[in-house]
Amino acid sequence: MIGSLFTPFLFQSAAQAITPILLAALAGVLCGRVGVFNLALEGQMLAGAFAAIVGSFLAHSALVGVAAAMAGAAAFSLILAYGATVFRGDPVVIGIGMNLLASGLTAYLLRVVFGVSGTFSDPGVVGLGRIAIPALAGVPVLGWAFARQSAITWAAWALTALIGVVLYLTPVGLRLRGVGEQPEAAGALGVDVARYRIVTVLVAGALTGLAGAQLSLGAVSVFAEDMSAGRGWIAVVAVMLGRNNPLYAAAACVLFGFADAIGVNLQSRGLPNQLTDAAPYVATLLALVVSHRRRSRFSQRSRKPAPTAGEAAAAHRRGGSGRKA
Amino acid sequence: MSPIDRTPPRLDRLRIPPVALAAGFAALAGAALILVSGHDPLSAYAEIVRGSLSPESLPDTLAWATPLVGMTLAAALPLRGGMVNLGGDGQLVIGGLVAALAPLVLAGPGPFGAAAGLALAALGGGLYAALAAWGEVRHGVPMLISSLLLSYPAVGVTSYLARFPLRDVATGLPQTLMVPLDARLPVLTGALNAGSLLIAAIALAVVVFDRRTSAGYELRMRGKNARFAGYGGVRLGRQAVGTMFASGAIAGLVGATLVLGSQFRFIDGALLTPAYTWSGLMAALLVGGEPVGAILAALFFAALQTGGFAMQRETSVPRVLTLVLQAIVILFLAMRQGIGRRT
Fold this sequence. Notes:
By secondary structure, chain A is mainly alpha-helical.
């Protein structure tokens, strides 16, 4: 039973499920690194998914759709970029507000621009093609899955490596990390902290746009209201679990992606989808519990009273929004 | 008077209340969006006002405000102590389902069934919310995220139950059996039922708790500085679990009043479609969880949303615009508060 789950189809659907979460998690990692707690991933992704459909519909080109998604999501991210830095707003409030704004705005524009509610699909919308890499087609079990992925899936993994390299091996990465860990020190060394934060949040916004494009142009070319469906929140957890490290966050995304795929698989075996849809969230929760249990046991030995996670998050929030007087 | 006081009034000296400024800004942005759709913003706004505040539509606004105020209180209570309950949806559906089943399962006269439904719904929602707090206190799992994630399985399981094992097969819809007539909440007038009185009583209790009790003071102290509160003798773990239990219990009660007061059965999705949880959270966030302000904000949002129905009917501007307006208000205020908070 368990063995028969791991079919090529499972890997294919897992790879598909991982892509948007991974891209959003990378965005969250970048923001977290510069000390901006990003809870808006869900809304940014949704804005990107909508912009992708609009771009592809108007230009009949998937590439234009992807470009529109990245530009649209980055523009939407201006709210967080300036709100959490120059205007010193609470990133948690801004994040929640942005998620609702994206949900409302895309639903409104869907009705006003396309005249439909619920879902929009049109023959004029060009989806992303699958990219087959001949060298990988021969890999046993995975070859079939490898041949059925969009360019964005490959880009997501390339970006994971790229962001890892940039963060840990380049001067820019060092400055980025400095801005997040010790803003005062980074500022004293001549790094423009606010500018680094704003640019990083905007770049991260473009990544969430890519995630959104994968949602609306990847497997099927359709936009549905609230189609990000909690994936942004899963990405937030992946960022937490990965402690702002892109590789650890990617590992968490793989776990969630497989939980999602296994849920889909069980659904095809007759389990009602109301139950299987919850699978990735339950897996996410369990991963949170396991990781924090281990962490808290560790910190009990090494430190005096460890701050609770909530207080740590609050401290994180304060750090992100600039110091309070 | 020193000469410095006689400098000409600058814009920030005019002291426009930030909420009014935010609402005005949202109205302007919304007007731009209405223009994009090719309609007249003024007539659309006029419909919102007429559709929510005119004598014939006021009861509808109050009926819509009942669950919204309830979910606002559920969000405001933890917020007062610096905690965020994002799992209102899960607690809401648990309360709703429990309330729909209790009168059917428990033997006894109808009013007993209603009372038991309300009590068990509060218990169910409360325990589910307390689970998230316990996870943070005991295992360090951040409640901000865990409360939200717990929501998904709760929504999934209740949806499954309403669609399969507990479904009323006589109807073609995913819903449970009807609640017996005598177990329903009594109607006051038209759209209003006793559930509104219950929520009003809870609102009063939360305000009194916040302003007049030492526990409320301790919660506010935690909100300002959790470490200080802990040093001062507040038992933070117990307080977190208790506060979240109360928050979840209110959410569960909101679900119960909707089921026993107006829907009379658990209909899959019906409790979540109006997004009371998120509107309530926004209303609470507007004022940092201060109960009176939060209730006023909730009433404002309720009027906006009820008026949205009239706007959609009369001018065919989609009523989801009201959600956009709400989001703009909260974003504007989040930043505006930041501007005032100089280091």
